[in-house]
Task: structure prediction
Amino acid sequence: METNKEVIIFICNYGFGTDAMIEARKAGASGGTLIHGRSSLEQGKQSFFGITINPEKDLLMIVCLEEIRANIMKAINAAYGPSTDAHGICFSMKVTDTLGMNFEAKPFLQESK
Result:
C-alpha cells in the first residue's frame, strides 16, 4: 500500500516543543521527535524584525500522512505560532520512503500529568 507521507518541522523557543506535540496529537499525529538546540545567530544579532530571538530552541519533527498534515500544522500554529511566546515557525516536506513506521489510525490518548 503506497501512502503519501510528509514531515512537519516545527521550530520554537525552548520549552514549548512538548506542549506543541500535545496539540499535534489532538490534531491526529501519532508521535514525533523533539530535539533541543541553539540558534546559530551571533550574540549581537538576537533581534529580528523587532522580535527578540531566544538562542535556546526546540525542534519538533512529525512524520504523518499527507491528508492530516494541514490539520496538524494549523493546530500547532494556532497555539504556538509566531505571534505567541513560543515564536514558532512550521513547514513541511515530502517524505519519499520510510522504514519501521506504522501509519494506522490510533486514538488520541490524553497524557496524565
Notes: The first strand starts at residue 5 and ends at 13. The chain has one domain: 9-92. The chain is about 20% helix and 30% strand. Strands lie at 5-13, 33-38, 47-48, 51-52, 56-65, 89-95.
